[in-house]
Amino acid sequence: MVSEFRNHPLTDFSKPENKAKMQEALESVKSEFDRIYPLYIGGKEVETGDLLKSYNPCKKDEVVGTFHKAGKKEVDQAIEAAQQTFKSWSFEYPQKRADFLFKAAEVMRRRQFELNAWMIHETGKNWVEADADTAEAIDFLEFYGREMLRYADEQPVTPVPGEENELIYIPLGVGAVIPPWNFPLAILTGMTSAAIVTGNCVLLKPASDSPTIGHKYLEIIQEAGLPPGVLNYMPGSGGTIGDHIVSHPKIRFIAFTGSKEVGLRINELAAKHQPGQIWLKRVIAEMGGKDAIVVDREADLDEAVEGVAVSAFGYQGQKCSACSRAIVDESIYDEFVEKLKERSKKISIGPVDDPNNYMGAVINKAALDKTLKYIDIGKKEGRLIYGGEKGSDSGYYVQPTIFTDVDSKARLAQEEVFAPVLAVTKARDYDHALEIANDTEYGLTGSVYTKNEDKIEKAKKLFHVGNLYFNRKCTGALVGGHPFGGFNMSGTDSKAGGRDYLLLFMQAKSMSKKV
Ligand code: NAP
Question: Taking the domains of the chain in order of start, what are their residue ranges?
Fold first, then answer.
């Protein structure tokens, strides 16, 4: 009997013993930076000689790992291996499949500091953000393991006289899991584990900016004893092999989290029937956001400032849930802006292996260039009141940047920047603020700061986002407590970490016997 699900606690780094363990892990993983990682197909290590290097964005010349890249040939081999394995894996007892996840969670708990260290080096997460990422990955394993047990139980069907009826959930087949780099362990673990525990076999193509973390997941699930062929690890450029994977006739589903552009491409390609394909492919796509925090005239201003700053600049604004728009009632606008500017001055930037740095670098050069381009756009569309410059050239650093007086229709208020760039917009009143908040093509997260309960009730009805918060930041969804996924162009609202999620990876079979 498994216990009721509870979220894994975050590490308290103010304790000297935890600080020491984190510092030790940061040092010790460096001894593996020169490793060259193979692909993993059908239980075998495969080398292609075509190499991909992963770099530390905070120390841009530091290589964190080198990876053999999959080409189309390896994709075909992996799909074949996964298909073969599916014949047995799909009939494995759900309880046993769930057990692999529980064991993997155990391994992750043991390796938590090491996993944090890899994320700090490979993706520029600060200590606290990396630790939260690992905790979320552990939560996904524990939560989906329990969810599988629930779906494996007898499912309710209406009694029919003279018949014995049942409904069971069976897996879909071979699927592709395509995660982003920004929650390199949590999202990758969540999507992959959900697919596996429901009885599917998987091709995991990690993001090219975080293949090391993907490999750590592979090591962990292998240590948990997962049979070969269930998970096939395929680093490689999405632009080169992505279309081939998605359009392959033997791929049954694609679980994707990433940008709107790539998500739409996958959705379109997957919809096209290929010769030999005998199903409609299922696409689970979680995409971008243009998330807003509404600050009402009846808000606690200090709390609102803190919530906006943390949501906008945490992990350099590189969260799909990050606040990129603050919509502020005109009666408190000037005071809010002044306080936010003062708060932002306290943000320290630099290499995040140093715990004193709150913000690290953005993920790569392309991200830095894109951010600087949007800062130029912002200078034309609003008033730059803070930041706006790039930082040290030792990494891809950019200051937390705030533009005020941004029109709600401006590009800066409509397009996802995915960087520490915040647009502040003035609203006439609360209704106007909600109208502005809803006026983008996205609908992922949002938050409202107000002490007025009637206004909260109004937002519950009218603020159209998948994850809505009140008097708190709009980032930091917890597995189980805040099932996560957005509306409109933010995706298929799959609600990762919620009770409906595993259904996306299964189909229901209804059976009836005459008695
Ligand atoms: P991305 O550029 O769309 O990449 C995501 C994944 O797709 C990567 O593994 C990438 O591989 C792969 N890919 C690229 N081109 C492909 C193609 N043609 N076919 C198949 N796969 C392809 O996104 P990202 O920069 O990694 O992540 C940031 C984005 O993710 C933001 O828009 C953010 O809002 C969104 N996001 C959404 C959620 C959510 O839950 N809604 C959560 C996190 C992030 P390569 O790395 O090799 O290019």
Answer: 16-287+493-514, 291-478
Active-site amino acid positions: 286, 320
Pocket around ligand 1 at a 6 A CB cut-off = 178-183, 187, 205, 207-209, 237-239, 242-243, 246, 257-259, 262, 265-266, 286-289, 320, 416, 418, 444, 486, 490-491
pTM confidence score: 0.98
Rounded to an integer, what distance in angstroms lies between the CA atom of residue 199 and that of residue 509?
14
Our mutation pick for probing the ligand 1 site, out of 69, 136, 178, counting the most ligand atoms within 8 A of Cβ, is 178
Selection from 348, 405, 303 nearest residue 127 by Cα: 348
Kindly indicate whether the domain formed by 16-287+493-514 is annotated with CATH number 3.40.50.720. no
Residue 327 has a CB neighbour count (10 Å cut-off) of 27
Do 286 and 320 touch, CB atoms closer than 8 A?
A: yes
Give the residue, out of 182, 210, 445, with the most ligand 1 atoms within 8 A of its beta carbon, to mutate for a pocket test. 182
| CA atoms of 258 and 487, how far apart (whole Å) | 15
CATH architecture of 291-478: 3-Layer(aba) Sandwich (3.40)
Average pLDDT for residues 243-248, to the nearest whole number? 98
Q: What is the CA radius of gyration of the chain?
A: 23
Compute the distance between CA of residue 423 and CA of residue 236 in angstroms, rounded to an integer.
35
Q: What is the pLDDT of residues 144-183, one digit of tens each?
A: 999 999 999 999 999 999 999 999 999 999 999 999 999 9
Mean pLDDT of 422-450: 98
